Amino acid sequence: MKKMNTQEKIKAQLEENDIILYMKGSAMFPQCGFSGKAVEILKACEAKFDTVDVLSNPDIRDGIKQYSSWPTIPQLYIKGEFIGGSDIMLEMYQKGDLQEKIKVL
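and the corresponding structure tokens:
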């Protein structure tokens, strides 16, 4: 079996998870304020989500930035669609848009 490259690995993670957050640390122990805020927003939406710790996966940390053409972490994906970082998540949450996207799942 061929070893997956980083972009293939990211694509597989996105296909396997309806909601996935690429973050620093874990949902239980966020390692930066922005990642912590992103987790809080998802919990407030009562979302079932998976996380990928980019600190323990340096190849994913660089790869996800290339994948999305977005320079910062955290990055939220819903059904494979790049949503954004914690600021965009907060803005969408305050408008009710994020809850709508999550409720459909």
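(Above: one complete record from the training split.) The helical segments are 6-16, 33-44, 58-68, 86-95, 97-103.
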